Structures are given as C-alpha cells and as structure tokens.
Amino acid sequence: MVEAVLIDLFSLPANLQNNIQGLLHNTLEAIEKCSSSHAPLVYVMCCQRQGSERKGEQEFLLPALGGFQSLKRRLEVVCAQTTAAALYTIKQRLDEKDLSIIKVILPTLRKDLMKVYIDHLFTAVYQFEFEDLQVVPDSESLQISEHQHEGQMLPSQDMALIQSEIQMYLESLPSLKGELTILRSSLIPDDIFLHGFTTRTGGISYIPTLSSCNLFSSSKRRDPQVVVKENLRRLANAAGFNPEAFHRVKVDHANAVCILGKTEPDDYDGIVTNQKGVTLAAPGADCIPVLFADPVRRACGAAHSGWKGTLLGVSMATVNAMVSEYGCNMKDILVVLGPSVGPCCYKLPHESAKEFHRIDPNCVRLFDSASPYIDIRRATRILLERGGILPENIQDDSITDQNQNITFCTACHPDKFYSHFRDGTNFGTQIGFISIKG
User: Fold this and answer.
1) CA end-to-end span of the chain, whole Å?
2) Which GO CC annotations does the UniProt entry carry (predicted)?
C-alpha cells in the first residue's frame, strides 16, 4: 500500500502554469478517489527560481490545491533551487514518519533522470513505483534538457552533473549535533602516525539513531552512500587525511586480513599496510575498532573485532600479518582498543559465553545466568598478550585516567557513540582510522 505520493513538477516552466494547475488538480482528484480508506501523504515538488520568494513560486499552484480537504493536512509543496535539494527535503519528511513505499508521478521525460537521483539519495529500504504525469498535447514546449526516451541510459555527462549537484548540496548542509570530535590515543606517536576514533557528532545524518556522523551505509539502513561519503569528507578534512586513499575493512565477523597492495579477499576484518598516506579504517558500533602501529618498521593496521572475531583471534591475525609482511617485531607493535560495548552492558547467550569463559573466567560476569555479561575487551587483551604483545603496549579500558581513556562503552554514552546493542537495526557506525605520515 502506497504510503506517500511525490508529484514532480520541478522541470515544468512557469509559462505552462495553467496546464500545471489542471494537471495537478486532476492528479490530486485521482489520489483522493483512490485513497478514501488510506490517504497517503502527498508532496508536490517544484522549482524555486533563484532570487524569487518561496511564496511567489507557490501562488500559481494554490488554485489547483483548493477543495482537497481530505488531503489538505497531508499535502505539502516543496520548493527548492535544485532537484537534489527538493528530493532530499522530501526524504527527510518520509524518514520523520518512517515511510518507505512511495509513488512518484512525473512527466515521462523526467523518469530516467529521477531514477538516478533516487538511486543516489535512497537505499533499498524504500520502494518506489512510477506513474506518468499526463502532460496535455500543447505542452510540447517543455524544455527538458535530456530529451531522453524512457528506458534509455542517461549520458555519462548528465550522470556526472547529477552527482555533482547532489554533492554540492550535501556539502552546503550544516553539521548536526555539535562539532566533529576525534578521540586520539597517547600511545601512538603522532609524529609518525595520523590516527583517531570518531564519535557521532559533526556530520549531516539526521535520522535519530544515525545522527550525525554516521560512517556506514547498507541496504538495511536509511542513510545512503552519498551521505556517508560527505560525513567521511568532513572527517578527512578535520583529521587531515585523503578520503580518496581510504580503505575500510569488509566486515565478515571473522579473522581474515587484507595486505594492502596484494590480492584483496572478498571479506576481511583486518587490514595492514606500510604505505605512506593511505588511511586504514575499521568500523565499530559495539564491536571494537582496533588500531595497530609499529613506529620502528613504520607499519600500521586496523581490525574490526566483534565477539565472533574476538574468539577467532582477528587482532592477533592482524599482528601476525604485520610481522610476516613487514618484518615487525612483536615487542614494537602498539595496540589501541577504541570505543566499544563494555562488560557493563553486553550480554550473550550462555553457549557463546562459555567460549569467553575458556579464555579467562574474568571475561564473563554472572556465568551461571542464561545471558551472562561478556568482556570482549579483556578477552582481546589476553589473546594479544598471549601472542606476544607487551602489556604496556596495549591501551584499553584498564586505563582509569579519564584524560587518557578512549575505550568508552558505546552503549552507555548515547550522546557520544552509536550502539547496535542500544539502538537496534537502524544503527549508526563510528570508525577507528590510522595512516603513516608522509
């Protein structure tokens, strides 16, 4: 069942105002008749000419909007200077109401164009269906620059223009929830390495569980890749790395490690390099983003360590890759555990808890309960120390000095961090990142 209707009048020029009024009136009449039991929200998208007032642009639509009392409270006219701006505004309205099924009514010549905008600004969470807006025969003067027939691919030049328009619009948006904040470890020497752990502030993601510096997009969440890319651009600008030389692990909750420059595995939770100026990153939204640095051999790494990856030894697998690939000495490698869910909040079923109990009984609290509390950080430290990492070369939540501690519990600090455990399936993601300075 359609939850919202988008009527796209964006490209229709002002000299066809009379036609637009008729088109809009007939379209709304059809929506009203077909939606007596469930009236969808209706958004009319039109162009706000530069230098004109919003009210003036909407005046010619008012006669067509009159008389639709059942739709009155469900109808909104959205004017903007670009399609990207108008569509992103409508996306915000849809997300506020958690709507996902949208019918788009638009001129045939706009359909392929609109699909490109939608592909960039929406994810697979949303379902779109398209219906032609029947433009009357004497409106052949419509100036739609693409002159595309439905089903044809847009020229690459037009695709690039759309991407550029979206990027420029997103770059113009203000940061939300405060300034962008980066946590840094005193253990990693900043004269050799650039590194940090992100928090949730300073980006443009607006959905509550994703706001505001969400750094991961998936088909199950409402933040599209273009928004995550803009958040990353702002992070890179603040931190001082090149977002075009950025490599994030492909999360598999296992222990495979990618050696940058060699054949890339399909999935991997660890990544290492000795190349300067290349930034490695691992996500975390309860799982631990772990950073590795060898200031002697000048090599670094990043790993994503959830409970499964911790049990499978992903951190030591990353260490071993640095040793074998770059000749690192185990005694020189520094390891920092970033913000992650703490034993104060994190529970697992008893069967899974047994595995942590085998590593060390102190990794489990209330072991005899159905869902014991688990300390994945302690388990990670123990496995690293057993593998040869010096205890003093590991920074985690054992540091009690609040000025030095960066291994906060993500679930306990909703103002600072995302948490899958706390927020559910539509959760945001922070990252740990590291690179070797040039």
Assistant:
1) 56
2) endoplasmic reticulum; nucleus; peroxisome
As a whole number of angstroms, the distance between CA 204 and CA 313 comes to 35
- Identify the burial level of 407 via C-beta atoms within 10 angstroms of its C-beta, where 0-12 means exposed, 13-18 middle and 19 or more buried: buried
3-state secondary structure (DSSP) of residue 367: coil
The stretches of 178-251 forming alpha helices (DSSP H) are 225-239
Q: How many angstroms separate the CA atoms of 25 and 9, rounded?
A: 13
Phi-psi map region of 102: left, alpha, beta (phi>0 left; psi -120 to 50 alpha): beta
Alpha-carbon Rg for the chain in angstroms:
26
pTM summary value: 0.91
CB burial class (10 A; 0-12, 13-18, 19+) of residue 368?
exposed
- Judge whether 204 and 230 are in contact, CB under 8 Å: yes
Contact present, 68 and 7 (Cβ < 8 Å): no
Q: For residue 44, what are the β-bridge partners?
A: 7, 77
**Mean per-residue pLDDT of the chain:** 89
d(CA 401, CA 380): 20
Provide the edge-to-edge strand list for the sheet that holds 127-132: 75-80, 41-47, 4-8, 101-106, 127-132
Query: What gap in Å lies between CA 333 and CA 176, rounded to an integer?
Result: 37
Contact call for residues 207 and 223 (beta carbons, < 8 A): yes
- Close Cβ partners of 57 (under 8 Å, ≥ 6 residues apart): 46, 47, 48, 49, 79
Residue 8 and residue 106 in contact, taking contact as beta carbons nearer than 8 Å: yes
Q: Are the CB atoms for 76 and 92 separated by under 8 Å?
A: no
What pLDDT is stored for residue 141 in this prediction?
38
pLDDT at residue 25, rounded to an integer: 73
Identify residue 40 by its one-letter amino acid code: P
CA distance 65 to 58: 10
Q: In what order do the strands lie in the sheet with 430-436?
A: 182-183, 193-198, 430-436, 279-284, 246-248
> 332: which 2 tokens?
């020189």
Joined tokens for residue 157: 């030049």
Q: Which regions of the chain are under pLDDT 70?
A: 12-21, 34-37, 49-72, 134-152
Instruction: Spell out the domains of the chain, with CATH numbers in brackets.
Output: 4-135+165-171 (3.40.50), 174-436 (3.60.140.10)
Q: How many residues does the chain have?
A: 438
CA distances from 161 to 117, 297, 388 (A): 11, 44, 53
Nearest to 307 by CA among 370, 253, 385: 253
Distance CA 372, CA 359 (A): 15
CA 18: distance to chain centroid? Answer: 42
CA–CA distance, 392 with 337 (Å, rounded to integer): 13
